[in-house]
Write a structure and sequence with these properties.
By secondary structure, the chain is of the alpha+beta class. It is built from five helices and eight strands. The protein has a single domain, classed as Hypothetical Protein Pfu-838710-001 (Beta Barrel), CATH 2.40.320. It is globular, with a radius of gyration of 16 Å.
Length: 177
């Protein structure tokens, strides 16, 4: 499965009434802390990959994100597995990995049919709207991306509003100034 995802900057107070009108149902609220790692053998920024530990409600998940698969969205392969945060951090350090940065956010998760909608309040960055859908294979990416942009039209967003940078990239960019 491939996660097809589009992110835009959005004022949550303006988005919520439209979400309600669209029939989206709130699933949960999550407080996420994501620790990203740099590899000793390659530069993830150059290869457009990511390795992170997401901590949420006392649980942790190790996620590998492959390079983006198209030019307009954040679509990429994602592989995840539950882990013990302390142990996996020690293992990664023993293998030469180091922390590249931390992203903290509050995420409100909604479902509108097949589309998962996330309202993210990201520490240091502000408010965002992410929409995602799971595609069976790479041949379904274009159709899925089109569906997401059609969905975003009701909020007043178009393809030109898509933000392809990750939250980590945005935080690192902001902190480099």
């Amino acid at each position: 499965m491939i996660e097809v995802e589009v992110k835009v900057g959005a004022d949550h107070e303006k988005v919520r009434p439209i979400l309600k009108k669209a029939g989206a149902s709130k699933i949960r609220v999550e407080i996420q802390s994501d620790t990203y790692f740099a590899a000793p053998h390659k530069d993830f920024a150059k290869t457009d990959e990511a390795l992170r530990i997401r901590s949420l409600d006392g649980q942790s998940v190790l996620t590998y994100k492959g390079p983006k698969l198209d030019g307009v969205s954040k679509t990429r392969e994602e592989l995840e597995t539950p882990v013990d945060e302390v142990s996996i951090t020690r293992i990664l350090h023993a293998l030469g990995f180091s922390e590249a940065g931390i992203v903290r956010k509050i995420r409100e998760v909604f479902r509108a049919g097949e589309i998962i909608v996330c309202l993210d309040a990201v520490e240091e960055l502000g408010e965002f709207l992410e929409v995602e859908i799971m595609a069976e294979s790479e041949k379904n990416i274009e159709t899925s991306t089109h569906r997401l942009f059609e969905f975003l039209k009701q909020f007043g967003f178009a393809e030109k509003d898509s933000i392809r940078a990750s939250y980590l990239e945005m935080v690192l960019e902001k902190n480099s100034h």
